[in-house]
Design goal:
alpha/beta; six-stranded parallel sheet; 11 helices; NAD-dep_sirtuin_deacylases; Sirtuin_cat_small_dom_sf
Length: 242
């Protein structure tokens, strides 16, 4: 049996499926990732590294440069979900499937997925640091980040040097899953990179689709495909429904 057929068999028989997605899920929609050779982290912005700019400390001391960077490099206006996003949304209609995403672009929800845990938050909305009022990011980019109460609007994302406050829920979802599907992440960033171990990959099967090899590429319980996510999901979808 080919690895694709085995992966399709695992998906069909699984009771509770957990999908973990990273930047590679969104690059197929035209967004740049962070850590690849040509990714966002390869270029400084006004003398600062992106990792520095996207930290809570930098946000507090230079909010203007922070928002200039977000508006120029991270704005997802006009970006549409790709075929992979849409296939996952369709699977949710017929399977017990949930998604944990490291992405902050909202493309899973735009494609129609409803059971999505945005582990690093969302760039779609902002919250005033003083009074808690909400505004969408586009409004803040267009009209300014200062609030009349004296606070500033901060994107609802987890910045560097902030805690990932939803990680306990993510680990709980991982423990309960019968099958883990990992899409577009090399599993470098902790604590999210711990999810396969929390899931129990030592005793349960996992499917991985990522452009570059992960540390699980030779793992006995991992079926890894170093190919396009959309193309691979399309092949699996065909096998599942034939």
């Amino acid at each position: 049996m080919s690895n694709l057929n085995e992966a399709a068999r695992l998906i069909k028989k699984a009771g509770k499926i957990l999908v973990l997605t990273g930047a590679g899920m969104s690059t197929e929609s035209g967004l740049k990732d962070f850590r690849s050779k040509d990714g966002l982290y390869s270029n400084r912005f006004r003398g600062n590294s992106p990792e520095t700019i996207l930290s809570a400390g930098f946000f507090r001391r230079d909010t203007r440069t922070f928002y200039d960077y977000v508006g120029e490099k991270l704005d997802v206006t006009g970006i549409e979900p790709n075929k992979g996003h849409r296939i996952l949304a369709a699977w949710e209609d017929t399977m017990d499937l949930s998604i944990i995403t490291q992405n902050i672009d909202g493309l899973h929800q735009k494609a129609g997925s409803k059971k999505v845990l945005e582990i690093h938050g969302t760039l779609a909305s902002t919250t005033c640091t003083r009074c808690g009022e909400k505004k969408n990011l586009r409004e803040v980019l267009d009209h300014g980040y200062d609030h009349a109460c004296g606070g500033v609007f901060k994107p609802d994302v987890v910045l560097y040097d902030e805690a990932v406050d939803k990680i306990d829920l993510a680990f709980e979802m991982a423990e309960k899953a019968d099958l883990l599907i990992i899409l577009g992440t090399s599993l470098y960033v902790y604590p999210v990179a711990s999810i396969p171990d929390v899931y129990g990959i030592s005793s349960k099967k996992a499917i991985i689709v990522n452009r570059d090899q992960t540390r699980y590429s030779m793992h006995a319980n991992a079926l890894e495909f170093n190919e396009s996510i959309s193309a691979t999901l399309e092949k699996l979808d065909h096998l599942i429904n034939e």
